[in-house]
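Form 7-S
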Amino acid sequence: MIEAATIVDALHYILSRVKNAGKIKLIKLVYLADKYHLLRYGRTVTNDDYYAMERGPVGTTVKDVLSLDKEMLAKEYNYISRLIGKTGANYIANPVAHLRYDHLSETDMEALDFVVDTFGKKTGAQLTVYTHKYPEWAQHEHLFKGNSIRRVRIEPEELLSVIDDNCFGVSPEHVEESRKMVTGVFH
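Output:
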């Protein structure tokens, strides 16, 4: 089950480190954190549903949270607006005294720290180009030319991909163990 509070905590955590970021950059950083955590620990940070869209893989609940739509997010809106603010086109972490990130585990924060340290200085456009290299998006690229299709579901198992740079530092054997955890198939 997707918990918007976990996503809000993850976004606030990232924003507290990068200071401000646009929507595309935040969507990409959360995607990369989810990918990192899935590859290493067999689950994502956010448990979000991913879709391949024109600008790359997108977590749908992350996208919804960043819309800051009071009606769509009625139940979570107060929590979201308490933690995340907006200045122009960029999002900021609202200062919150004694925030403990109760919805994030130690390994969740490890994944978020990794993506901020590795990708935090990149722009949304640079991250879009980078995330387009992953097969879970690249296999659908042709569908977005001419805008015939808006989105295609990405199954969690598809997120277990690495590219030549293997920035996540996982061995093929470790990826296979994570795949077994995700699929529940242990032969």
